[in-house]
Amino acid sequence: MQRQLITLTVNGERREVAVLPHHTLLEVLREDLGLTGTKHGCELGECGACTVLLDGRPALSCLTLPLAVQDCEITTIEGLERNGKLHPLQETFAELGAAQCGYCTPGIILAGVALLEEIPHPSLEQIKEALSGNLCRCTGYTAIYAAVEEAARRMTAPIPSGKGSDNDA
Description:
This is Carbon-monoxide dehydrogenase small subunit. By secondary structure, the chain is an alpha+beta fold.
């Protein structure tokens, strides 16, 4: 089978890659682009381990053909870090122990990021619904939900103006 040269925008960077027509986006990300944060789970779209963001919306990369997403912005877990700083949801996952084995964590975080972009102050029920396509076999989800709630709080907290701070002296 012959490879086809396509251009994908992954984590803000345009990348040319020669793909086999039957390969999934998951295979291209992991094998051709070396982005192994996206996990290989069930290949059936049932576990959510392969979740990426396509134009900011969660998508299962194991069911997505790269040819179909050439005009999309693809975000993987590697694309959340900005200038050496983790996304607030990545920080709260680490701080609250929301990851056990960590295998499902990238997909859950990306689904959570999409939720927080759409609904800055989600209810617990909205969080549960947004993450319902992501299975975790190690946790009881309580710490995961708490991490999303804490990230939402941090992301929407007012930024101090500096007035009355110790730096004004």
